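User: quick one - fold this with nicotinamide-adenine-dinucleotide bound?
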Amino acid sequence: MRIAVLRETQPGEARVALVPESVKKLVALKARVTVESGAGAQAGAADDDYLGAGAEVTAERDAVLSSADVLASVNRPAEGDLRRLKRGAVLVGFLRPLDEPAALAPLAELYVTSFAMELVPRITRAQAMDALSSMATVAGYKAVLTAAERLPRMFPLLMTAAGTVPPARVLVLGAGVAGLQAIATARRLGAVVDAYDVRAAAGEQVRSLGANFLEVDLGGIETEDKGGYAKELTPEALERGRQLIAKQARNSDVIITTAQVPGRPAPLLVTDDAVAGMRRGSVIVDLAGASGGNCALSRPGEDTDANGVRVMCPLNLPATVPVHASQLYSRNVTAFLSPLIKEGQLVIDMTDDVVGPSCVTHQGAFVNERVAAALEAAASR
Ligand code: NAD
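Assistant: Sure. Structure tokens for the protein plus nicotinamide-adenine-dinucleotide:
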């Protein structure tokens, strides 16, 4: 079997799906790997590194596609690329199956078996394949550095001969994987950190990182589903959160927002009024832009100025740390693919409790119920 890696073409993308370290592991499993020339250039992996790891490297993009049994990608490839794949080929990558299900229709039509890294279940056995967590970790870290770079103040408390500089105050909304990494990074830079999440379990994790957990009485409603994810709140509960956030925003130099509810639009947490109450020079970094954003003034993919408050809504922060983001992603993809390779052959067992749920299209049909429902909902809109 042949695994292929292309140069990513999405604007601003600098990551690569497989780094040489992973190629070596796949070659040891008797897979052959073909890499498009330059695919790892921005992620610290030169063509020679791939050759040294046992891959073949070619500048012929069409040949890479037409010979692939498995295409490993970061982003969903353009339709023109998908149409060059063999019937029955396998695609693994971030495919945005719940956000843009209709864009995956060509995969069914072309009889491509596709696996979305977003759908890998968060069970213990699949932890090494959890690419969402890997990318959220990078994004949480970089969001704080982005804010620190923009903020016209310093983060740490400094006691100097010229007097004392107070520490920056950072508010983190949503204490999942990205939020916890943002808290840890802001703390390392010396900021005083407050955090808010609707899941009570997040409180202990926030406090263990040295941050203050903001408690809101949400009226005793259930806020967490069986999988440990947040549920969509009632309008009243959301409003209580927003009021607390608006109050806290007045004393915050930086707000990092990361709140998401799987398959739903991101909750609105920072209102126009909350932004208006912030000091000039303050910075908001909204990491929920892909699902609409947590701040009323966020424009996905843009930086805006709201009366002196900078509202940033970057859509692909992991791509700005391409070496480590690629390394982590590549390990996740390799952990997913390795069990499917038996004696150099691809063996797909759809009854497997990781493989089955991660699959979007197989043998000409959408096989994932959630994606099929999202497709239907999109078609009826
Ligand atoms: P996510 O990206 O879906 O959401 C980020 C955070 O936003 C979550 O903590 C969520 O509770 C919070 N949120 C949602 N609505 C909110 C609101 N209205 N106000 C404030 N906060 C709100 O979440 P994630 O980072 O992917 O992680 C979610 C959960 O999954 C966590 O419990 C995490 O520990 C768990 N998890 C488990 C595994 C695993 O077992 N392998 C891996 C990663 C994450």
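One thing worth noting: The longest helix spans residues 131-150.
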